[in-house]
Every structure is written in structure tokens, then in C-alpha cells.
Write a structure and sequence with these properties.
The structure holds 2 protein chains of 2 kinds. By secondary structure, chain A is mainly alpha-helical. Chain A has a domain at 42-166: Four Helix Bundle (Hemerythrin (Met), subunit A), CATH 1.20.120. Chain A is 79% helix and 0% strand. The longest helix of chain A is centred in the first third of the chain and has 44 residues, at 41-84. The two termini of chain A are 26 Å apart. By secondary structure, chain B is α/β, with parallel strands linked by helices. Chain B has a domain at 35-76 and 101-144: Response regulator (Rossmann fold), CATH 3.40.50. Helix content of chain B is 29%, strand content 17%. Chain B has helices at residues 2-12, 43-55, 66-73, 82-87, 105-113, 126-137, 225-233, and strands at 20-21, 34-39, 58-64, 97-100, 118-121, 140-141, 155-156, 164-170, 183-189. A 3-stranded mixed β-sheet of chain B has the order 1-3-2. In chain B, α2 links the parallel β2 and β3. The longest helix of chain B has 13 residues, at 43-55. Mean pLDDT of chain B is 59; it is low at 1-30 and 140-235. Classes of the chains: A mainly alpha, B alpha/beta. Chain B: This is Two-component response regulator ARR5 isoform X2. Chain B: Residues 163-235 are annotated as: Disordered. Chain B: InterPro entries: ARR-like, CheY-like_superfamily, Sig_transdc_resp-reg_receiver. Chain B: Residues 165-224 have a biased composition (Low complexity). Chain B: One of its GO terms (biological process) is cytokinin-activated signaling pathway.
């Protein structure tokens, strides 16, 4: 593929990311901060974001994991209870399992807040919006809501990660072929 | 004075502030370059704000917590004795700007009341940094002369080339009722970092709220922070 074609592809792909809501104006802002003295600024920041996000998602999963375990156990417990008779099993089932383990919602909220901040700093607006919804469930201490949101946030994150990696690969190809990234052609 | 109290409360709440501060210990000298202390616990935000400030011709030091910010400023509990704290009255002149993704008016209010100069809502843009810098360059500090008695941080409105350093700190820890989850920008005069000044009583007050405010684009006379906030809100 010749350089001009690749450049057009880059412009179209970038525009599509904005139109589909994956990226917002903050990403353009980052591109404006890139120049000859800092030619890899956007890539550096985005890869920092990826690193940060992997860690945050792990922390979030761990913070909610105890709840997942409890739910699975409780489901089994209830099924067995219905089969054998509730009172019989209550004697054997430790009281602690009957009580819902407390999820540290403050901790979860702290992680989500961090994720919301970093995603908005690079312009990953879908991830940010998913984080906002997540925080609402944290405030309500709604466990199912939180678990659902965690899935949503993960999904949006992996989607935008994929898109950005594709974009950067395209940029590398353009530069390797001797061309330059046509940032000025991004008119909105 | 509110700002001296701000620093003292900043110290108390340093554990709650997850901000990054980097210290630059270059000797004070008159220069046109503003030195900003950026505090933010997020890697991504630190990198972005560092770049934003460098592009705006500011010298930047970025750190990751309020604790490190205080260490940088020499206000750390372990290192400094209570007596040294009085010398931090020089730091009361440092304008502090808070940055946060939380856009809660009550919190912004409290930050301003506690002495923050301004509040920026994240994500921070180049225009925000430019506006703050323009605002800072139109302010005058009376602490240019080391022998002069501090007048409690009163500012006069004169246009003058910025000869002091500007510190920016930000934190993005999750907001709690008292802890700032925002970054603060503070500026200090390059000449007054080591100068002793008459001790001023630090005002007692509530814990440091997080606040962020965007500076008005045009220089205004020194009003109360509340008035400035109201001006900004009506913008």
C-alpha cells in the first residue's frame, strides 16, 4: 500500500473512532501536545493508560471476587436447601455464609474513580461513561449492578485498546514508509 | 490568613491527599520561568499535566502524593521541627490550584474558601493551563523583599512580570468529604523559599476540601474567592 493510501486510511479510521464515541476531544488535545521534540507523546501516554488500566481492572476484579464466590456458593446452598429442606441444612451451614460478605464499596469506588479519571484524560469516552454508571451502583451498594458494570467497563476498555493499537500500527506503517501522520486533516 | 491556614490544613490532610509532588531544589533566582509543582496520584494525569505545563513554558516537578509534595516543600513532619512550620508562611503565598474530575459546586466552594486560587475540572486542557498562567502573571506579591514583613499574603493588582515560581499539584484520589481528590497548583516566589518571615498565626478551620476552580481569563482586583467563583460560574 502506498503512503497516500495509508494516510487516507488513517484519517478515516481516526474519524470513525470519534464518530463511534470511542474517543473524544481530549484525544485531539493529546495529539496537539505532540511535536518534533516529543514525537511519541500520544503513544507513551496511551501505553501508560493501558498499564494503569490492567492493574485497576485486576484490583476491581479482586475486590468484587469475594462477592462472586459467595454468590456461587449461596446459589448451590439454596438449591440444596430446597431439595433437602431448609431447616435441616441451616444447622450445618455456617452462619457466616448466610450473611452476605461485605464488599468494600469504598475501595471499589476508589478504583473506578481512578479509572474514570485516567480514561477521561486520554479521551476514552466510552470507558469513562461506563465508569460513571459503575460509580452510581457503588453509591447504591448494588452488587449485581457493580458486577454488571465491571463486565461493561472491561468490554469497553478492551474494545478501545484494540482500536488504539490498530491506529498506532497504522501510524508506524506510514512513518516506516517515509510518510507523516496527517493530523491536520482531522477536521471536525 | 486563609492561605497560611491552607498550608497547615494541607499538612494535616496530606495522608488523605493522593497527590504527586516533585521537588526541585534549585536555588532561588529571578527568572521569567514559572516553576510548577504538580501533584497527582495517576501516572497518566501526571504525564499529561507535565507536558501541558512544559508546552506552556513552565518548569515542572511532578510527584505522586501529598506527602511527597510536603517533603519537597520541606514541610514534612519527620524532617521539620514545629518552629520551621512558621517559616512556611512564605509558602502561604503559593497559589494553589485544584484539579479534579469531580464537578461538585459545594466542594469547589469549600476549596476556594480554604484559599485555593482556582479549580480546574479534569481532563485538563491546554486552554486551562494558559488561562491559569495568564491569571498568575497579572498578580503581584509583596514578598519580593525579604526584609519586609509579610502582610498576611495580601495581593495588589499590578501588572508585573512573573518572577516567582508556580506550583501545580493535583491529586486524583477518590473524593471524600474532607480529602481533596484534586490537584492543587501553587506558586511560590523564587526568592522567598528560604527567607524567614514573621510568624503569622495559622487560621484554624475545617479539613481541606477538594476544590477546583478555573481562573477567570481577565485579571480582576483581589476579591474574595467566593466572588471569583461566582464570576466564574456566571461565565
Amino acid at each position: 500500500m502506498e503512503v497516500g493510501q495509508m494516510q487516507r486510511q488513517w484519517v478515516d479510521y481516526t474519524k470513525s473512532l470519534f464518530l463511534e464515541g470511542f474517543l473524544d476531544g481530549q484525544f485531539l488535545q493529546l495529539q496537539q501536545l505532540q511535536d518534533e521534540s516529543n514525537p511519541d507523546f500520544v503513544v507513551e501516554v496511551v501505553y501508560l493508560f493501558f498499564e494503569d488500566s490492567e492493574k485497576l481492572l485486576n484490583d476491581l476484579t479482586r475486590a468484587l471476587h469475594s462477592m462472586l464466590f459467595w454468590l456461587a456458593t449461596f446459589e448451590c446452598f439454596m438449591k440444596v436447601c430446597c431439595f433437602w429442606g431448609f431447616r435441616f441444612l441451616c444447622i450445618f451451614f455456617p452462619p457466616s455464609y448466610r450473611d452476605q460478605p461485605s464488599v468494600d464499596f469504598k475501595k471499589v469506588d476508589a478504583h473506578v474513580h481512578q479509572f474514570k479519571g485516567s480514561s477521561s484524560s486520554i479521551g476514552a469516552s466510552r470507558v469513562r461513561n461506563a465508569c460513571i454508571a459503575f460509580r452510581n451502583f457503588c453509591e447504591e451498594q448494588n452488587i449485581e449492578g457493580c458486577l454488571g458494570c465491571l463486565q461493561q467497563v472491561k468490554q469497553e476498555y478492551y474494545l478501545v485498546k484494540n482500536k488504539l493499537e490498530t491506529l498506532f500500527r497504522l501510524e508506524q506503517q506510514i512513518v516506516a514508509a517515509g510518510g507523516s501522520i496527517p493530523m491536520t486533516e482531522l477536521s471536525f | 490568613m486563609a492561605r497560611n491556614g491552607f498550608v497547615s490544613r494541607w499538612r494535616r490532610s496530606s495522608e488523605r491527599v493522593n497527590a504527586a509532588v516533585a521537588c526541585d531544589v534549585s536555588p532561588p533566582h529571578v527568572s521569567d520561568e514559572v516553576h510548577v509543582l504538580a501533584v497527582d496520584d495517576s501516572f497518566v494525569d501526571r504525564k499529561v499535566i507535565e507536558r501541558l505545563l512544559r508546552i506552556s513554558s513552565c518548569k515542572v516537578t511532578a510527584v505522586d502524593s501529598g506527602r511527597r509534595a510536603l517533603q519537597f516543600l520541606g514541610l514534612d513532619d519527620e524532617k521539620s521541627s514545629p518552629v520551621d512550620f512558621h517559616e512556611s508562611s512564605t509558602f502561604k503565598e503559593i497559589p494553589v490550584v485544584i484539579m479534579s474530575s469531580e464537578n461538585v459546586l459545594a466542594r469547589i466552594d469549600r476549596c476556594l474558601e480554604e484559599g485555593a486560587e482556582d479549580f480546574i475540572v479534569k481532563p485538563v486542557k491546554l486552554a486551562d493551563v494558559k488561562r491559569i498562567k495568564d491569571f498568575m502573571t497579572t498578580r503581584v506579591y509583596r514578598f519580593g523583599n525579604e526584609e519586609e514583613e509579610e502582610s498576611g499574603g495580601m495581593m495588589m493588582m499590578n501588572k508585573r512580570k512573573l518572577q516567582d515560581s508556580l506550583d501545580l499539584s493535583s491529586s486524583s484520589s477518590p473524593p471524600q468529604s474532607i480529602s481533596p481528590s484534586s490537584s492543587s497548583l501553587s506558586s511560590s516566589p523564587s526568592s522567598s523559599l528560604s527567607s524567614p518571615s514573621s510568624p503569622t498565626p495559622s487560621s484554624s478551620g475545617s479539613t481541606l476540601p477538594s476544590s477546583s476552580l478555573s481562573a477567570p481569563s481577565s485579571p480582576i482586583s483581589l476579591d474574595s474567592p467566593i466572588r471569583r467563583l461566582k464570576t466564574t460560574i456566571t461565565d
